[in-house]
Design brief:
This protein is of the alpha/beta class. About 40% of the residues lie in helices and about 15% in strands. It contains six helices and seven strands; from the N terminus they run αβαβαββαβαββα. Strands 1-5-4-2-3 form a five-stranded parallel sheet. The protein has a two-stranded antiparallel ribbon with strand order 6-7. It is globular and about 40 Å long. The two termini are about 15 Å apart.
């Protein structure tokens, strides 16, 4: 079972990398290190999911910015050198957002590999506002397969 779990995530990450070859990725472990580093400015976390998904649960300190919003500019008013981490459920929608941010000139944009589902599967904290919650929005029955 563990092998199947690993294979499905490797396949999904490969598909996302193939579809978005210019998007940089960051692992959950790397993000934890980045968030815990008190000598660096915290990255800007952007949740690329739907409003309902974000309302149910998200990463601590993350801002909601759907991947399909028509104009990003009014929502992202940070220097182009700001480290930005995008995430969604599994990493596809956030890769779209990361690609759009890169095209706007942002230099340090990273898509979270496996995104919120993988983060959650590693028993890392998920929040609803400021409170840790034991659940996430599964989007639909198909995507619940990834949990």
């Amino acid at each position: 079972m563990k092998l199947f779990y690993s294979l499905k995530w490797n396949l999904l990450n490969w598909i996302i990398t193939l579809r978005f070859p210019c998007v940089n990725h960051i692992s959950t472990e790397e993000l934890v290190t980045l968030l815990e580093d008190k000598n660096r400015e915290s990255p800007l976390l952007l949740d690329a999911r739907t409003p309902l998904e974000y309302a149910v649960s998200h990463l601590k300190g993350a801002y909601f910015l759907p991947h399909d919003v028509s104009k990003i500019e009014p929502f992202v008013e940070v220097p182009l050198s700001t480290t930005i981490i995008t995430y969604c459920s599994v990493g596809y929608r956030s890769a779209i957002l990361a690609q759009r941010l890169q095209k706007m000139g942002y230099e340090k944009v990273f898509n979270l590999q496996g995104s919120l589902f993988f983060w959650f599967s590693e028993n890392r904290p998920i929040f609803c506002e400021q409170e840790v919650v034991p659940f996430i929005h599964r989007f639909d029955l198909f995507w619940s397969f990834w949990l």
